[in-house]
């Protein structure tokens, strides 16, 4: 979302996040596909002209099927990330890190090999980076020890490019970069995905022609921590957030009032004590 | 489940786990109550005579409501854990650790104060312990640094009892105990909950009178990691596991065949590569 807003400031973005069922990266491909299909259905019910699957686990497990099922263009983050990594490497050795689901899917290996047959790929699940970023431990002693445990040896292998194959990982890029040293360049898919989105919208004649711009945030759960974490990603305040029901056969609607999760959390804790 | 099987070897246990929506401890009280109600509905459809809410986040957020709604006796883990802690402390200073949801609910403070008005309670969310146990990092350098960060200073506060307020935490008891030192006793609610279950079943005349004993495992997702983690908890092989659909208005049934998540994961990864 941050990359898109920078690249396409004239487009309205409907954001749907699924904290009720988060994280996806620990789940089976079947379940991720089911969730992603429900999520996309919600976005379609809001009248979107394009869907961006801005989650690497969902992109890895569900993209071909979503492309087949949805009546609008669908863009994932795997292909753009792979392109950025292939463009960056000089040693032709790329490492990819991601959730268990992303790495198990093999989607990055496929995407990179389609672009460059001779590249050697080291793919490694680094699941604890997700809760680490959620906890806000972006560059402390715990982050350092976890990064060392997952990444030690990668630079010695001649890897010169590390693809951050999860939305959470760029938050940890300082500690990851320090552990790997200056010979390894970190690559993420945000900018490349935003560029692809622009290209795709322009190609289909779908760019906004002067209509009003308004972003909206829908969430499946108003979890107390979400706004804190979300604003850390976004780099600015999120404004009002609306709870949306998905994964329920009868309803893809939203509840009556817009609520702010921070004030909601405050109310809830006052009520409970 | 481990505690129950030891205490009540003649009872059949129907286990339902929700890896599709796991973890609960990061979610709002509303969402946890909704999920717990759906989960209990599934168990009722299997004909259980009692429901044990063996998750501290769900016990903290949903127990009173479940007791009101369900037609069978319901037992949580908060009350038994509080009892064990109050019995253990000599300094009358108890620390409780749990997920964000459990600690935010204040359920442990309530339960402990109902039993012993004068006890001082330090309640602290330690959310990263959950993915740490899932990753199997039970006693390495990462576990040590995380435990230090969360727990440093507790022993200095005169705390002599630490209540492990999450099913995952007993797996980390070695490193937690080392960080806190010998003056602090760790308490969990498994044995006390099993004792309460026995008492309750005996009191209601519901103990099994010689019928066959058969345990069953139902899961909302056959995630590749589940069986590994589950057997770590259970201390023995789980046998066959069946995928169950919950959270869907139309169905609380199970899919046609029993499948083993390990062989499922193996099949899936073979298909993908």
Keywords:
disordered C terminus, Rossmann fold, 273 residues, alpha/beta, 45% helix, four-stranded parallel sheet, 2 domains, homodimer, three-stranded parallel sheet, 12 helices
Q: What is this structure, in a nutshell?
A:
The structure is a homodimer of 273-residue chains. Chain A is an alpha/beta fold.
What is this structure's SSE topology?
Two copies of one chain form a homodimer.
Chain A: H1 2-7, E1 14-17, H2 29-45, E2 51-52, H3 56-69, E3 74-75, H4 78-88, E4 93-98, H5 100-105, H6 107-115, E5 120-125, H7 129-135, H8 141-151, E6 161-165, H9 173-180, E7 185-187, H10 190-203, E8 216-219, H11 226-234, E9 241-243, H12 261-272
Parallel strand pairs in A: 1-8, 2-3, 4-5, 4-6, 6-7, 8-9
Structure explained in plain terms:
- The structure is a homodimer of 273-residue chains.
- Chain A is of the alpha/beta class.
- The first copy, chain A, folds into two domains: 2-77 and 192-263, Rossmann fold; 78-188, Rossmann fold, CATH 3.40.50.
- The first copy, chain A, is built from twelve helices and nine strands.
- In chain A, the strands form three sheets. Chain A has a four-stranded parallel beta sheet, with helices on both faces. A three-stranded parallel beta sheet of chain A has the order 1-8-9, covered by helices on one side.
- In chain A, α11 links the parallel β8 (216-219) and β9 (241-243).
- In chain A, α2 packs across α3, α4 (78-88) crosses α6 and α8 crosses α9 (173-180).
- Chain A is globular.
- In chain A, 48% of the residues are buried.
- Residues 248-273 of chain A have low confidence and may be disordered.
- The interface between A and B is large, with 45 and 44 residues.
């Amino acid at each position: 979302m941050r990359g898109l807003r920078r690249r396409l400031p004239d487009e309205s973005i409907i954001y749907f996040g699924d904290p009720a069922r988060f994280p996806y990266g620990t789940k089976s491909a079947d379940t991720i596909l089911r969730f992603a299909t429900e999520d996309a259905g919600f976005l379609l019910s809001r009248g979107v002209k394009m869907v961006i699957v801005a989650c690497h686990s969902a992109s890895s497990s569900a993209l071909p099927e979503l492309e087949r099922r949805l009546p609008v263009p669908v863009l994932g983050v795997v292909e753009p990330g792979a392109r950025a990594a292939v463009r960056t490497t000089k040693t032709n050795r790329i490492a990819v890190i991601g959730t268990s689901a992303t790495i198990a899917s093999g989607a990055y290996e496929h995407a990179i090999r389609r672009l460059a047959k001779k590249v050697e790929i080291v793919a490694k699940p680094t699941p604890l980076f997700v809760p680490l970023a959620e906890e806000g431990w972006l560059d402390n002693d715990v982050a350092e020890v976890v990064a060392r445990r997952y990444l030690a040896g990668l630079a010695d292998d001649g890897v010169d490019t590390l693809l951050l194959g999860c939305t959470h990982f760029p938050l940890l890029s300082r500690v990851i970069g320090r552990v790997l040293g200056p010979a390894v360049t970190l690559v993420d898919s945000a900018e490349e995905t935003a560029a692809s989105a622009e290209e795709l919208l322009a190609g289909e004649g779908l760019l906004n022609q002067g209509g009003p711009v308004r972003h909206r945030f829908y969430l499946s759960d108003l979890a107390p921590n979400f706004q804190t974490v979300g604003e850390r990603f976004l780099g600015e305040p999120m404004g009002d957030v609306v709870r949306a029901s998905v994964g329920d056969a009868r309803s893809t609607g939203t509840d009556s009032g817009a609520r702010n999760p921070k004030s909601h959390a405050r109310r809830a804790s006052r009520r409970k004590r």
